[in-house]
Amino acid sequence: MADVFRQISQNTNEIMVVAFFVAYPSLLLAMIILPIMPYFNRLSFWILAFSNAVFCYWLASDAADSDDRFGVGVLIAFAAIVLFLICFALGATISTFRRRKEAAANRYVDVLFAFVTSVPIPLIILFPLGIFARWPGIIVFGLLICLAVALVCLAFFAVPGLRQRSPFDRFGLSCLMLAATLTLSVTIAYVSAVAVWTEAERGAEGHPYCLQSGNRPVTTMMDASVLTFREPKYSGSGVRFLRNHGLLIVDAADGRHVFNWSYRKTTFTSDSLYDSPNSTARPEILCTPQQHP
Question: So where does this one cross the membrane (predicted)?
Fold first, then answer.
């Protein structure tokens, strides 16, 4: 599983290309097609629009925050925003002024609705946007697991006056798919933590070492997952490519060495800011290297 995570991390550029040129245009086109259908659900359109807005924010912010020496990132960000606004305006206009019957209960429609509302948004928020960056890992893992369990329970609960006890209605399917998405996220996070831990031991080569995420020492393997062992999307001034996700500090016989974790290369590299000529950019080492068995 760690090898699968490495393959995904090392193909970030390809994933972004597919997301921008395939997935994103498909979702935008769906915003226009959905209101034209003879039967459609207005709530489905607004949920789809919200998903597209989150998708647009991810693509635009990631492109604008990249190493953009030639202005390509800004152009991509501008194109993503303009395309979203045009498609949303067209879809909202059609949805508002064209009289259509609301969609009757349909299992396929319910599954599609549950997928759109429960899968893309959590994955984008947890991984590309990284809202839990620098958090203690045990809190994040515990929160996601408890939320997944609560959603499964909620799917089987009846709500008097609103729904019967049916886990496979639209609400129940959404809860179950969201729980499955959170479970998948926890699994990916655990695999990424194993990859970081393994590479840290390999990079230390038997010398005392420690891991640091921002200004917080890594104390457990859960702190080293892709959910927390990373630079926040926005953390003050400076572009993201000039900051470090996490540090490996090694006290070797020839002195101290500080390495930066690269998710794209899935290893620790020697290009950390610890040796930067700019003293204000150098990270403060707060953890103490220790000998590990």
Answer: 15-36, 43-60, 72-97, 109-132, 138-159, 171-197
Tens of pLDDT along 24-65?
788 788 888 877 776 666 777 787 888 888 888 877 776 655
The secondary structure of the chain, three-state, reads CHHHHHHHHHCHHHHHHHHHHHHHHHHHHHHHHHHHCCEECHHHHHHHHHHHHHHHHHHHHHHHCCCCCCCHHHHHHHHHHHHHHHHHHHHHHHHHHCCCEECCCCHHHHHHHHHHHHCHHHHHHHCCCCCCCCCCHHHHHHHHHHHHHHHHHHHHCCECCCECCCCCCHHHHHHHHHHHHHHHHHHHHHHHHHHHHHHHHHHHCCCCEEEEECCEECCCHHHHCCCCCCCCCCCCCCCHHHCCCCEEEEEECCEEEEEEEECCCCEEECCCHHHCCCHHHCCCCCCCCECCC
154 shares its domain with 199: yes
Q: For residues 212 and 218, is the Cβ–Cβ distance under 8 A?
A: yes
Token digits of residue 112: 């599609």
Bridge partners, 250 (sequence order): 209, 257
pLDDT tens per residue, range 148-161: 999 998 888 766 55
- Ramachandran class of 40: left when φ > 0, alpha when ψ lies in -120 to 50, beta otherwise: beta
Long-range contacts of 276-279 (CB under 8 A, 24+ apart): none
Residue 162's CB is within 10 A of a number of other CB atoms, namely 7
Do 32 and 129 lie in one domain? The reply is: no
Tokens 């809190």, residue located: 139
What is the number of structural domains in the chain?
Answer: 2
